[in-house]
Amino acid sequence: MLALLIFSSVVTLAQQTPSENNAGIYHQRGNSPEGGTNYILFPDHQFVIAFFGGMLQGVWKQEGDQINFTTTAEPHYICYGRYVAELKGTQIRFKKPL
Q1: How far apart are CA 44 and CA 30, in angstroms?
Q2: CATH code, 18-98
Q3: How far apart are CA 11 and CA 44, in angstroms?
Q4: DSSP for 74-97, written as a single string
């Protein structure tokens, strides 16, 4: 009975298309204390890549034996600062890039 169950599972997996087989959660180990990267591929070809301090999202496409990721994230800026009481009346303006 167990052999029949295993055989039917293998046959079912073999009948799926490659894109169905690739959907899932994958972890790439990192050597830093922050950890690695997690890749979450959805069956509808959406993906999320989660890593320490951020994440990316977009669509994925299988081409041969490779999976290509296209992000849909908009560019962002990083602003570091601190409060200095002597600097009064300073203005900083941000303009969206073209």
Answers
A1: 28
A2: 2.40.128
A3: 23
A4: PP---------TT--S--------
Q: In this predicted structure, what is the pLDDT of residue 60?
A: 94
Q: How far apart are CA 49 and CA 68, in angstroms?
A: 13
Where are the domains positioned within the chain? 18-98
The CA distances from residue 44 to 2, 13, 24, 29, in Å, are 32, 18, 11, 26
Backbone angles phi and psi of 67, in degrees to 5? -115, 125
Give the tens place of pLDDT for each residue, 20-56: 578 999 998 888 887 889 999 999 999 999 988 888 8
